[in-house]
């Protein structure tokens, strides 16, 4: 039984270490997508102005 609890402790530690890094990766990806979308809007407007102008 002691061996099994040791495995659970290892799994718990692994999960605890994994969750922050996963959320960090998710936030980084979200920020990148947001920046791209934010940058895309002015670029579209600029492109429309160039095309129509």
Give your account of this protein's structure.
Keywords: Membrane, Transmembrane, Transmembrane helix. The chain is mainly α and 53 residues long. The chain has one domain. Helix content is 96%, strand content 0%. It is built from one helix and no strands. The protein is rod-shaped. The N and C termini lie far apart (76 Å). The model has no long low-confidence stretch (mean pLDDT 86).
Order of helices and strands: H
Total number of helices: 1
Number of domains: 1
The poorly predicted ranges are: none
In short:
The protein has 53 residues and is mainly alpha-helical.
Per-chain topology:
Blueprint: H1 2-52
Features of the shown structure:
1 helix; 53 residues; rod-shaped; mainly alpha
């Amino acid at each position: 039984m002691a061996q099994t609890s040791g495995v659970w402790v290892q799994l718990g530690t692994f999960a605890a270490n994994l969750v922050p890094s996963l959320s960090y990766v998710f936030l980084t990806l979200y920020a990148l997508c947001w920046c791209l979308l934010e940058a895309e809007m002015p670029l579209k407007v600029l492109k429309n102005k160039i095309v129509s102008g």
